[in-house]
Specification:
Length: 492
């Protein structure tokens, strides 16, 4: 063990701070935990595009099946969090997103430290890379509401870490399993299958075909979590998208057939506009200095395997996001931000190394300045992501269930309204007398079957296609309410 002489206390900050992974891990965990704790949604929230929260919370709580593609692993983990004796049901599920994102940033930092352990500024640069990812507004915004992207980030980073983890040598199916688990949370993770061909354990760039097939076997094991969806559907839960108890219905759900027109559904002109938007988003996430350092890192001579893995991660998810025809497709860029954080880390480490070779004191002052710049960004990000005061969903749900006529047929439009009403009726056990009907879903036979099981007293006519007027005519004794998204309610 090396001790610092009493007369050389000036070496303490460098020896015990700048080169200590444990200290920087604690700092990163404390920083992100504090930021997320101050901005996390206290209940059901529509902040940061969180319309799906009511659907995911209710499906996890009731043993149901949420919207495509089903997210089976997320359901299991979310249900565990919902059993914690802390706050309300929605808050506990929001907490899952926050914890997963903190762990994802810590895992990113740990993996980068492994890559840069011989670099003088490697530990510090890895800390900045982890913080840059965790404090990126889009990542932060998803970390404080109920969504699947915090867990997705954690699982993708576990997969990347596993590719390079020597303890898994000879256990290649485990490396594939990590990717399969990521895909069982969000199916877009299968985009990373080509990375299974990379070899991090030898001088060869690509692995042998037999090793690749072993890894693919692990992927299939991870994907087997999707088999819990038919088992959940057999219990006839109130939220049961697709009722996937047959092979056809199961494929409809997990393949996302409901959104079949979305992938590559954007015109070429709009793709160009979205590519410009990606550039703007990068600036918003990492600031101008971070973008410059990240681009420098990409061009500064990364190890070939890291370069190939990060380029595929960035380009594939960027392509998917810009070509996916939904209003919220920017959330699919979060894995791309992982790649950019890697480039930023390498660029920062290389730049500080070069600066230290000529001006050691200036390099240390630059580190302090970078910390100050990182902290100085926080007041500008807080208003963008803060969900701690967003009570729109709660106020909407409480107000509606308090004032809706008895035994009403409630025709709801829009994910926000439908999912919030599901949450209050099925998770909070409020107003079991009213019938909640999604106008967008009554065209599907599986949904009508689900309605009949959930509301046995509801009369459902045989005419197809079915309309709200048909349901009203078949249930004349029930008053009707029409709810459009989160704004308008009309009862008669």
């Amino acid at each position: 063990m090396t001790f610092i002489r009493p007369g050389n206390w000036s070496a303490i900050p460098w020896a015990y701070f700048m080169r200590s992974p444990k200290i920087f891990s604690l700092l990163l965990a404390a920083l992100l935990s504090l930021c997320y704790a101050l901005t996390i949604a206290p209940a059901l929230s529509w902040a940061n595009g969180g319309a799906d929260g009511g659907d995911l919370i209710t499906a996890a709580f009731t043993g149901g099946v949420p919207h495509p593609t089903g997210y089976p692993l997320y359901l299991l983990v979310a249900h565990l969090f919902q059993d914690f004796p802390l706050g309300g049901l929605a808050f506990r599920t929001n907490l899952l997103s926050a914890l997963c994102t903190v762990l994802a940033a810590l895992l990113l930092q740990s993996w980068l430290i492994r890559q840069l352990e011989n670099q003088k500024f490697g530990v510090f640069s890895a800390f900045i890379g982890g913080a840059a990812f965790g404090l990126a507004p889009l990542v932060w915004g998803q970390a404080v509401i109920t969504e699947v992207y915090g867990l997705q980030s954690l699982l993708i980073l576990a997969f990347l870490f596993g590719l390079d983890w020597t303890a898994l040598n000879g256990k290649d199916w485990v490396r594939g399993l990590l990717l399969g688990l990521a895909a069982s949370n969000h199916l877009t993770s299968l985009i990373l299958i080509p990375l299974l061909a990379l070899d991090f354990s030898s001088k060869a760039l690509f692995t042998l075909p037999m090793v690749f097939f072993k890894r693919m076997a692990g992927v299939l094991i991870g994907l087997s979590f999707y088999l819990i969806l038919p088992l959940r559907a057999l219990t006839q839960p109130p939220v049961n998208w697709g009722n996937p108890i047959t092979l056809q219905a199961f494929w409809w759900l997990v393949s996302g057939r409901l959104y079949a027109s979305y992938p590559f559904g954007v015109s070429f002109a709009d793709v160009l506009l979205r590519l410009r938007g990606v550039a703007g988003l990068l600036l918003a996430q990492f600031a101008l200095l971070g973008v410059v350092v990240g681009i420098y890192g990409l061009l500064s001579g990364l190890p070939r395997r890291i370069l190939l893995a990060s380029l595929w991660l960035f380009s594939s998810f960027c392509l998917f996001a810009v070509s996916y025809a939904s209003y919220d497709s920017q959330v699919y860029l979060i894995p791309a931000f992982i790649a950019f954080s890697i480039w930023l880390t390498y660029g920062l480490s290389d730049g500080l190394q070069a600066l230290s070779a000529r001006f050691p004191r200036l390099a240390q002052l630059t580190c302090a300045l970078i910390i100050l710049l990182l902290l100085a960004r926080l007041p500008g990000i807080f208003p963008q992501v803060d969900a701690s005061h967003d009570l729109r969903a709660e106020n909407f749900g409480v107000g509606f269930v308090s004032n809706a006529p008895e035994n009403a047929l409630v025709f709801a439009q829009g994910d926000e309204a439908v999912f919030a009403l599901w949450y209050f009726q099925f998770s909070m056990s409020q107003r079991s007398d009213i019938v909640i009907i999604s106008e967008e879903l009554i065209q599907y036979d599986w949904y009508l079957t689900n309605l009949a099981h959930t509301y046995p007293q509801l009369m459902i006519p045989f005419s197809r296609p079915l309309t709200a007027s048909d349901l009203l005519a078949a249930n004349p004794a029930r008053p009707a309410c029409f709810v459009k998204q989160s704004a308008t309610t009309f009862c008669q």
